[in-house]
Amino acid sequence: MIEVKDVSKSFGNNQVLKNISFDVKEGEVVVLVGPSGSGKSTLLRCINFLEEFQAGQILVDGEGVGYVGSAGGSRRRQSEADIAHLRTKAGMVFQNYNLFPHKTAIENVMMGPMLVNKESKEEARAHAVKLLGKVGLADKADHFPSQLSGGQQQRVAIARALAMRPKVMLFDEVTSALDPELVDEVLKTLRDLSNDGMTMIIVTHEMQFARDVADRLLFFYQGAIIEDGPPAEVFENPKTERFQTFVKRFQSNVHRG
Ligand SMILES: Nc1ncnc2c1ncn2[C@@H]1O[C@H](COP(=O)(O)OP(=O)(O)OP(=O)(O)O)[C@@H](O)[C@H]1O
Ligand SMILES: [Mg+2]
């Protein structure tokens, strides 16, 4: 469902992705962990083409991301329409959920499908009701963001991304800005999505969650993947000292949730 092949990206002289390759099969959950600045967000942003990349290729559901033509050859940027289409296939949720403050929860969920996917108001509303139910907010549809907790707002943001009927979902530290007691309700939503068979890449520092939910764990270090495998294997038998050192720093999270 997602193929990342030899992707490299630099900001000026700073190479932040170094020949990254991996793929994500349909229904698979891949969790990315790694120290701050190792390139996790940049990779997710490349998959949704919020960032350009200089080398390599990314495919989502068989379609090339960002560029027409082969890497190395005569590569040029896709049309804005194709890029917009791509972004409907890969839903993304960030740490800061950025709901529209003057719109209710359900209006936030309905907007994208109506504006971008040209769904009718009725169709968009019916789907939004279903999705708000799925994230446990059926009774909050008419609340404004300011009337919702951080965890509830983040779940609205997840429903909003799902409303675009994406093929894959990309989550970038969606619990990092939340008070600790609100983290579990958002992680539960991610677990539910995984159980529904959604294909996902999740960047998180929640190690226990990573162990429980990931089919594959990738450990990023300075722009490269230096551990890759089922989480039990990586946690029990890490190939690198760096991963062990990293995990020790998050021991406090390991016993949560
Ligand atoms: N827009 C930008 N311009 C220049 N450098 C950038 C830009 N965005 C990111 N970087 C650099 O790219 C590197 C990777 O950043 P990235 O945000 O991908 O890391 P991360 O693994 O997501 O870190 P964190 O865990 O703190 O979110 C860092 O060195 C960062 O300073
Ligand atoms: Mg990041």
TrEMBL record:
It is a peripheral membrane protein. Pfam families: ABC_tran (PF00005). GO terms for molecular function: ABC-type amino acid transporter activity; ATP binding; ATP hydrolysis activity. GO terms for cellular component: plasma membrane. Its main location: membrane. InterPro entries: AAA+_ATPase, ABC_ATPase_HisP-typ, ABC_transporter-like_ATP-bd, ABC_transporter-like_CS, MetN_ABC_transporter-like, P-loop_NTPase. It is found in: Cell membrane. SMART domains: AAA. Keywords: Amino-acid transport, ATP-binding, Cell membrane, Membrane, Nucleotide-binding, Transport. It comes from the Bacteria. The keyword Membrane applies. Residues 2-247 form the ABC transporter domain. CDD domains: ABC_HisP_GlnQ. PANTHER family: AMINO ACID IMPORT ATP-BINDING PROTEIN, GLUTAMATE_ASPARTATE IMPORT ATP-BINDING PROTEIN GLTL. Belongs to the ABC transporter superfamily. This is ABC transporter domain-containing protein. It comes from Simplicispira suum. The lineage of its organism: Bacteria, Pseudomonadati, Pseudomonadota, Betaproteobacteria, Burkholderiales.
